[in-house]
Amino acid sequence: MSNENGTPGDKNLRYLGLIIAIVAIVVTIILAIWQYSPPPPDFRISIDPMQGAVQQGGVITTTITIEGVSGYEEQVRLSATGQPSGVVLAFVPSYGWAKPSYTSHVTINVNSTVLVGDHTITINGRGADGKEHRYSYTLTVKPSVTPTSTATPTSTKVLPQLDIIHTTLLEEP
Fold first, then answer.
1. pLDDT, tens only, 79-113
2. What is the pTM assigned to this prediction?
3. d(CA 90, CA 100)
4. Pairing relation of β-strands 101-110 and 87-92?
5. What's the domain range around 121?
6. Number of domains making up the chain
7. Residues in the chain with pLDDT < 50?
8. Residues 24 and 51 in one domain
9. CA–CA distance from 66 to each of 79, 82, 134, 146 (Å)?
10. Which run of H or E residues covers position 88?
11. Same domain for 78 and 5
12. Exposure pattern of 134-146 as b/e (b: 16+ CB <10 Å)?
């Protein structure tokens, strides 16, 4: 059946086109809102440098910065795991407010008995709200240097030993 306005199939195609256009607009709006939504509050950790080399019995330092993201205002505590026996890390300070950021200086003391080679230490940051982030620090332990003598041998002369005898003369009256 047809009429002046066209076939019934033409009318259905127009409705289908209108529905597709409306769906496309709605999807575009949803994606735009989702894309521009700010991320939830959180923090990030940066380690500078992220690796270091030290001799057995030595000390090395690194710096850790904790930065709040998207309005994060909690305290963050730092700790370390995975370090070999004989390696001690000291964080100064070990916690602080991530609003907007804080810096911790880390001293790494390496005992003279620590095995030579690469060791991965995990730096942990835990917010007061329970959020956690972990980053790796690579510690390369090198053999300690044995001190060498810079003195050169010299010849020694042996002198004869002299005995000194004290004598006292007595005068007779």
1. 999 999 999 999 999 999 999 999 999 999 999 99
2. 0.64
3. 23
4. antiparallel
5. 42-142
6. 2
7. 1-2
8. no
9. 13, 21, 12, 39
10. strand 87-92
11. no
12. eeebebebeeeee
